[in-house]
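[audit] Reproducing an earlier prediction to check determinism. Same input, same settings, fresh worker. If the tokens differ from the archived copy the diff job will pick it up downstream; this log only records the rerun itself.
[audit] input (341 residues):
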Amino acid sequence: MRAASVSDDAHKACRNCGETLRGAWCHACGQSGHLHRSLLHLGEEVLHGLLHFEAKGWRTLPLLVARPGLLTRRYIDGQRVRYVSPLALFLFTVFLMFFVVSFGPKGTPDRLAGAASERADLLAEVKDADAAVAKAEQELARIRAQGADITDALAELAEARQDARTQGAALQAFDASPRAAAAPASSPVDGQHRTRVDTGNAKLDAAIRHAIDNPELALYKLKGTAYKFSFLLVPISLPFLWLMFFWRRGIAMYDHAVFSLYSLTFMSLLVTVAALLYGTPARGFVAPLLILVPPVHLAVHLRETHGLTWSSTVWRTGVLLCVCLAALLLFLAAILALSMA
């Protein structure tokens, strides 16, 4: 089948915006006046997109590593055609980081997570059954105090106790099975030795206790949830960045967003490299890489982005490191609550 096309001679108006064409390209929206409708052209567009991103990537990544402030400053000032946008680069590197980390030696096997999840569900059912028994006993005591007929209350209490025994037997059967070896030890069902957590939020307390009692399962769920909500790191960090520069004129929240995205992108790349090195003889460099590189990179990034002096850069870097820790803790708390919901 011959591919159909639309030539400039056949159509004097742009197919996209309706503007009269004055050449091969529309001067109003930039669309080509010559349109293709062939499968070959679709493949050509895919190839062009990949090569176009690669060309931008080779200009963006070296600056992100060596001159992050220059890259951020150029993008904020409007020099954007030559570089990958901070949001696109951030999303790509976060996906790459979690993809690499998921195959790391510290990844939680599905078998372990499944066994831990099953035991956690059984523990929750036992707890609910015990709560139902306590509620039935309270109801029986109330009816008895009123001098009313307690036949129905006794029946409900017997049913609740039978359900509690059934759930307890199911938990004991699981603990005696081979699958129990794959599940991490958890706190006792009676709650007498459960980890005490009191943040003022009952749901968050339950999520934290669950994570402490089942660390392997918590790690597995965190890894599965964190990358989906990694974009939350940006709005979490923006108020802190604003507080560091609110008295300086000419710095908008958009500037902080670009700075945050490029900085988080570099940190994602750093974690990716560390994860790759961890399985090699160079694993001894992982800890120094993660400890020494971030503050140096943040200092260079801050200084060149905002034209700071070294003294101003040093104290802001210290504050920013504290900001990063606070943002990370808030992010982990949010992800923990979402993953354990």
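[audit] rerun output stored. Observation attached for the diff report: Residues 110-146 form the longest helix (37 residues).
[audit] end
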